[in-house]
Each structure stands twice: as C-alpha cells, then as structure tokens.
Design a protein that fits this description.
Chain lengths: 151, 151
DNA sequence: TATCAGTTGATAATAATTATCTACTAATAA
DNA sequence: TTATTAGTAGATAATTATTATCAACTGATA
C-alpha cells in the first residue's frame, strides 16, 4: 500500500540525502508534497496536489508544485503516470512492481502489486532482445472499476 | 511488425465497417493517416503525422489530424502512447501484446512483442483481484537504446 | 556578517489540444 | 434528378497544462 507510513518515513530520510547530494534543499513544500503522496493512494494530479498543499501553505503557487514535482521526479522519489484517460498523475511508489489500474469511466487509479516473479523474466528478455540499457518498465491496466460497472 | 502491409489491408477493411457502424465516414484523410501509421514503425506524434499527411493533402489542417486521430482511437484502430519522455505518440497496433521500448535519451519508440503466455496470467489475475471489467493493459519499457548508449 | 546558491511565489509565455464555425461533400429522400 | 441532411475539412480562436522568467526571500557557508 502506498499510504504506508513506513514508506513515507523511509522516503523522507532518503529525500534529504538525495536532495543534498544533487545540490537541492529540503524545503517544507517538498516535504509536504511527499507526505501528501505517501498519505494517499488517490494518485492526484498537479492541480489536486496544489489544492491539498495550500491547506498547510496557503501562499503556495502552482508553479512551485510543478517545480517540486520536477525535483522529486529527478531524485527518483515520485513517479509520474501519464494517461490520456486520467491525465498526468503522481505516485509515491516508484517500483515497477507497482502497476496501475485505471478506470476509463471515473478515472480512478488504484495500485496493483505485480508478482515480481512474473515481470522479471519479461524485463530481462526485453533487455536482452532490444539491447536497451538500464531498462525499467511500467504496466498500466485499463478497464471499468467495480464502482462504475453498471452505471 | 507494425509496418506489415497485411496489417494495413486488414485495418482498412475493418475501418470502413467500423466507421460506418458508428455513423462516421471513410475519408481520404482518415485513410491516409491509417496508411501512414501502418507504413512506419516510428510511432509519430500529431505534428509529425501532420507533416507527412500534408505531402499528399497539402491543405490539411492540424485540427483535422487531431480530429481524425480522435475518431481512429474511438473505433479502436489506433493506439495512443502517453509518455512524459517522448510526448504523445501513435501506433497502428492496438494489441496489448505489443509493448513499447522508449529511449529516454533520443525518445525513439520501438515495438516489443510480448510472449502472450506471460502476460495473460497477469491480466487475468489483475482482473480477478481488482474486479475491473473489460481489462486491457499496456506495458512500456524505459531505458537507453543501443544507439544512445555511450553517447 | 556578508555572500552566494537555491527557492518561492507571481506572472508571463509556451505548447499541445480542443472548440467553433463556415464552406464543402457524400449519402439519402423526394 | 434535385433537395435535404448529416458528417467533414480547414481556418482560426480558445483552452488547458506546463514551463520560463524574475524579483524577493532564505538557509548555509566563508
């Protein structure tokens, strides 16, 4: 579960190190966005993150959200999910064992933990066949979620 | 291979039927875009499709490209690939056995045929576990392509 | 304490996409 | 055949999401 507190605690420690290592600073806003993503499994978009961060930092600008998102992506602490169905969304989990179920009706995105044993051989084979280096992968499922079935 | 002529021939026949079934028309522009995607494995974006279609239809508007893309998506004849790395791109193949290798340096996208035996159980399990209906999936690989390694 | 690099927030600018509208065209009905 | 219609193309305007710019601020370091 991406809302697990342990995930967040681990991330916070990591984030401080990673930021400093690359000449960035650990700011309250950056912490707030990471906390927010860790505390929710809703996979919000930038606008939604903005709305939530403003509760704690009322003067925050949307530009700051985008810049923070960019920094957090750069240091590998968050993942961007790109879909035409649900727009651009963010996830605290960057593991590619974490797939996403995307509802094509309500645009909800939920996590789905992949059995690593089934993905590993596929990525290994793709890497060998293609000659691509540093290969990682992303699996998205699209369908109609239980709430939307029948509506 | 997505550039296979058989793929295109089959698509053309399908497209006429599908369009008419939904009250759309088979126009030269729609055919041109489908042919163009079938004849290339470059996975172009809208702007690139525009440039190519203009060779045959010099008066074509970019708006027409977007509208056509939208229609072709609706009838399930083309696939939209969404990435932050390489923008929004299009593919003639809509099968989810067709994964994509995306180079994070040069933004090339190449096809990778998945062994269906390895994906089927995963999608089946995801469907059962989640309760999602009409589930389909998309697998993207991200890495550095052979051409870009070492550059 | 002074300096400096990084950051924020406000705003402007850009890029990608969608909406609007008029003229055109193919299919159908009279 | 002609008239009607529904769908479409192309031009353009509008919108949305995102990024760039810049002055003021802040925290770390010399």
């Amino acid at each position: 579960m991406t809302s697990d507190n342990q995930v967040f605690d681990k991330k916070v420690i990591e984030m401080g190190d990673l930021l400093r290592k690359q000449g960035f600073r650990l700011t309250p806003q950056r912490l707030a966005i990471l906390r927010l993503l860790a505390g929710s499994d809703q996979h919000p978009n930038a606008e939604q993150i903005y709305g939530l961060v403003k509760k704690d930092f009322p003067t925050t600008s949307l530009a700051t959200i985008y810049k923070t998102i960019s920094v957090l992506k750069q240091i590998g602490q968050i993942l961007e999910i790109n879909t035409s169905e649900a727009g651009t969304r963010y996830d605290i989990s960057t593991s590619f064992m974490n797939a996403h179920l995307i509802c094509t009706r309500c645009h909800a995105i939920t996590d789905f933990d992949l059995p690593s044993g089934e993905i590993d051989p596929i990525i290994k084979q793709a890497s060998e066949d293609s000659g691509y280096q540093q290969l990682m992968c992303r699996l998205n499922f699209y369908g109609i979620c239980p709430n939307c079935v029948g509506t």
